[in-house]
Amino acid sequence: MFQRLLRVPILKTVLRIANAYFLRGDFASNKRFSGFRAIVRALWVQVLICVTLSCIVNWDYLRARYDGGAATFVKESFSAKPGELILTVLPSLLGFGIGVYALVFALTAKLVSELGARIEDEKKRGKLSFGSALALNADLAYPLLVLALTIGLGVVQRAIPDSGALMLASWMMFWYSLIMLIEIIGVLFGLGENSLLDKMLECEDEST
């Protein structure tokens, strides 16, 4: 079934990137579906945060639904326009993310080897059941995919502003996109830290 879905244009790209992210870049991510457990493990914290923040922003709307004033509230409140916010903020962040993704092609063989060895060691100790050095690629590509999908959802929300469900979904994806941006920053921090440590060791070797 999974292989058949990979034959569908666009869906193929979405599934490959998402599956690689859920399986931490495991080599089998192109051959088998990650499974419900891997998806929950990768997303449950982020989803909980997104739901909480979306409820906070839309608290008045959620209360108004039970008072019969939801329709009017949707048209007039700030929280009714997540699509506008998405289309204002996220395109520039997507451009930033694409620029960051170019760093993948500049990674040193030493860094990739160390990352792969670390993941294999965690597999042996039972901390991981899947994964590879390709996790770094997935950790950068998946957030870009989320940003692109969120921008598309933002366009739809602006076209159908009266849909409460679409409004809530847009807010959730907006927060999720920001969380993904934080993950990109985390990856950059790790790469920068590793690079600086290597240079520090080189300086120490030269001084001795």
Task: Describe this entry's structure for a reader.
- This protein is mostly helical.
- The protein is globular.
- The protein is about 75% helix and about 0% strand.
- The mean pLDDT is about 85.
- α6 (about 80-100) packs parallel to α9 (about 165-205).
- It has helices at about 1-5, 10-20, 35-55, 60-65, 70-75, 80-100, 110-125, 135-160, 165-205.
- The protein contains nine helices and no strands.
- It has one domain.
Short description:
The chain is mainly α. Helix content is 75%, strand content 0%.
Write the layout of secondary structure elements.
Layout: H1 2-5, H2 11-22, H3 36-57, H4 59-65, H5 70-76, H6 82-101, H7 109-124, H8 135-159, H9 164-207
Helix pairs in contact: 2-8, 3-9, 4-5, 6-8, 6-9, 8-9
Using brief descriptors, characterize the structure shown:
208 residues; single chain; 75% helix; mainly alpha
Number of strands: 0
Mean pLDDT: 85
Q: Would you tell me the structural class of the helices and strands?
A: mainly alpha
Largest sheet at a glance?
none
Query: Helix share of residues?
Result: over 70%
Instruction: Note poorly predicted spans.
Output: none
- The number of domains is 1
What order do the SSEs take from the amino end to the carboxyl end, as H and E? HHHHHHHHH
Shape: globular
Number of continuous helical runs: 9
What's the Cα radius of gyration?
Answer: 21 Å
Separation of the first and last Cα atoms: 59 Å
Strand content: under 5%
